[in-house]
Write a structure and sequence with these properties.
heterodimer, A: mainly alpha, 3 helical TM bundles of succinate and fumarate reductases, 5 helices, B: 130 residues, mainly alpha, two-stranded antiparallel sheet, 3% strand
């Protein structure tokens, strides 16, 4: 027999997801506007100085400590912010089960974060 | 074994369409969808950069295609909307006091926008020259 203890359902790992969600929210607000403006609008429109993001200069910027901070602030933390919100959005729409959604969302965020950090770390070793 | 009775009847899936406030809430939650698109673009960019100059130029070309520009412009607007709502939370969640005077909420919101401006100036400094 399984006893139901609704009051004990509070997950012990929730503070971790909340911390990542909040940190990601700060990054979403502070860093994403500038990153989107420069890399998604000005760069493809050719409005940056010609060699500002040549392969050589972009590599020297990304494959170093500034690049590691950039990836953390514009990829990893915002990913966990998005994962948390999508998880709760799915709950609000009663889609799927929260137990599965939780691992799918945070798992995808962790996987993509590891990939992004891995690319930068490998680039630093070259 | 029988299931314990539900304490509440299940909510219909469209509950949030029934009030302006809940629609605004869901719209705010949905601002992360263009954000996810932009993040995946950035991730593709880091991979392209590591693969060489041709892949990097290819990525810049991809970023310039109209649907990608449109979605990323939406991500930019979403990030500013998120910032606007997020910055108003800070003084409510964590009111600051200096001595025995509390820091006005408007000042704390302005301080956070100054942070956005500082990051923008940093980007201008880094990317505004060759």
């Amino acid at each position: 027999m399984t006893q139901h203890h609704p009051e004990r359902r509070q997950a012990y790992d929730e503070p971790l997801w909340w911390a990542l969600f909040s940190a990601g929210g700060v990054c979403f607000a502070l860093f994403v506007p500038s990153a989107a403006l420069f890399l998604a609008l000005l760069l493809p429109a050719g409005l940056l100085p010609a060699d500002a993001l040549s392969h050589e200069r972009a590599s020297s910027l990304l494959f170093g400590l500034p690049g590691l901070i950039f990836v953390g602030a514009t990829i990893c933390l915002p990913l966990f912010h998005a994962a948390h919100r999508i998880r709760h959005g799915l709950f609000d729409l009663t889609l799927g089960s929260d137990g599965t959604n939780k691992w799918l969302m945070y798992g995808a965020a962790a996987l993509l974060s590891a990939l992004a950090l891995g690319v930068v770390l490998l680039g630093m070793l070259r | 074994m029988h299931k314990p009775p539900r304490a509440h009847p299940p909510l219909p899936r469209n509950w949030w369409l029934k009030h302006r406030f809940f629609i605004a809430y869901m719209a705010r939650e949905a601002t992360v969808l263009p954000l996810v698109f932009f993040i995946v673009c950035l991730l593709a960019g880091t991979l392209a950069l590591s693969r060489g100059p041709d892949a990097w130029q290819g990525w810049i070309g991809f970023m310039g295609s109209p649907p990608v520009v449109a979605l990323n412009a939406l991500a930019l607007v979403a990030s500013l909307y998120h910032a606007w709502t997020f910055f108003q939370l800070f003084p409510r969640v964590m009111p600051l006091r200096l001595g025995d005077r509390s820091v006005p909420a408007s000042l704390m919101v302005a301080g956070q926008w100054a942070g956005v401006l500082a990051v923008l100036l940093l980007f201008v400094w880094v990317f505004g020259r060759a």
